Amino acid sequence: MFTIPLSVVAAVYVGTACAATFGLWFYYDRRDRRLYDLERRKVNFHCIRCDKLYTARAGTELCDCPRCHFQNQRLTF
């Protein structure tokens, strides 16, 4: 009968646990970074009717003012 030494079983178990932990850490780190970048990248707008400054998601060229609902172009510097 073939038996596996206890040290080999323990090494495989610890290696598998470390690999799983690293894999989960890598997945959640990438996910959180992507969500943070989407939240962080904003475009600024200035309403010419009510003089309000507001933001919207990146890539938006026209956006309605939250106060007076006038459609404004993005603010460029």
Output the keywords.
alpha+beta; single chain; 2 domains; rod-shaped; 45% helix; 21% strand; two-stranded antiparallel ribbon; two-stranded antiparallel sheet; 77 residues
Task: Count the DSSP helices.
Answer: 1
**Unreliable parts:** none
Distance between the termini: 77 Å
What's the overall geometry? rod-shaped
Report the β-strand fraction as a percent range. Answer: 15-25%
The gyration radius over C-alpha positions equals 26 Å
SSE pattern, N- to C-terminal: HEEEE
Average pLDDT rating: 91
Main sheet specs: 2 strands, antiparallel
What topology, given as strand order, has the largest sheet? 1-2
The percentage helix is 40-55%
How many β-strand stretches?
Answer: 4
Number of domains: 2
Class from helix and strand fractions? alpha+beta
Report on this structure.
The protein is of the alpha+beta class and 77 residues long. The protein folds into 2 domains: 1-40; 42-77, no CATH class. The chain contains 1 helix and 4 strands; from the N terminus they run αββββ. The protein has one helix at 6-40, and strands at 42-46, 53-57, 62-64, 71-73. Strands 1-2 form a two-stranded antiparallel ribbon. A hairpin with a 6-residue loop joins strand 3 (62-64) and strand 4. The longest helix has 35 residues, at 6-40. The model has no long low-confidence stretch (mean pLDDT 91).
